[in-house]
Design goal:
With 339 residues, the chain is of the alpha/beta class. The protein has 10 helices and 15 strands. The two termini are 16 Å apart.
Amino acid sequence: MKAYEIGPQTGLDSLHAVTRETPKPGFGEVLLKTRLVALNNRDIQVLEGRYGAKKAENRIPVSEGVGEVVELGEGVSGLALGDRAVFAHFVNWIDGAFSLGHFGVDYGITHDGWLAEYIRVPAAALVKVPESLSDEQVAPLASSALTAWHAVVEVGQIKASDTVLALGTGGVAIWALQIAKAHGARVIITSSSDEKLELARKLGADITINYRTNPDWEAEVMKATGGAGADIIVETGGYDTHAKSILAAAANARISFISVAPREGAPAINVGLVIYKNLVLKGIAEGSRAMLARLVRTIEQQNIQPVIDSTFAFDEAPAAYAHLKSGSHVGKILIRVSE
């Protein structure tokens, strides 16, 4: 089969095409023919050697996509040849609370990922895709969308009366906007780009704030909410925005921390304010298979269409990575592997 490997992880040039033997599914496993994959920021970090310790140079990258079942291993039931399926990249996290052990089996990181013509995966991790959903609707769900779902729905326990604040217009933030609007909530989006804020408004954002022209954006959030603050905050900004998010939070707000991007001299979190407001602070590491199944149902019921920036051919994968690295995209960057 054709595939890509991450090589020495010295930059985007480390990604290289190879030909490898097609894997065979073992007991309880399924072989998927890869149809469409989606890139995430951590795919860039892996190639640049910035995602923890360096990985095996022959690792196949990419952690989300959609595939078609082409072979069933012994002991597999509930799936048939031709079914389309997705899976969360922590494949052992089926349901229940997160465990540190889930980091040990992370497809695209510890195990071969989606950027190949075929991928072998435990059948128990798979979520079958309804026929009504397109490849484009489901390929981008298992990483940034699932993270947003975890933050907004599972942790945030969203209600239609809530105000949701999502920082930036990256993949997680845009998905948080779409998921929150599907639940009837009010959404505030921040960005340094007026063009991206305009897109956010087209997607249903109720309030948009340019943090470059309004550096005290937390005060703008409080003003826009009549002094109440945001009930759910999807914190993708990193250390330099953590303190501001706490200032922008309503009493009893739920804040999900997703990014720890370091910034020198970032203000410290006011723990006294956390106590005063009775805030819930939660770290988010993607989500379980059960969460992904609930997300897929909502995508189907609400017919949510992901924001797609561009789709590249399989042999154009390096160009897709370069486009992601440029930061000029709005929405997901996809790679078409097969029809």
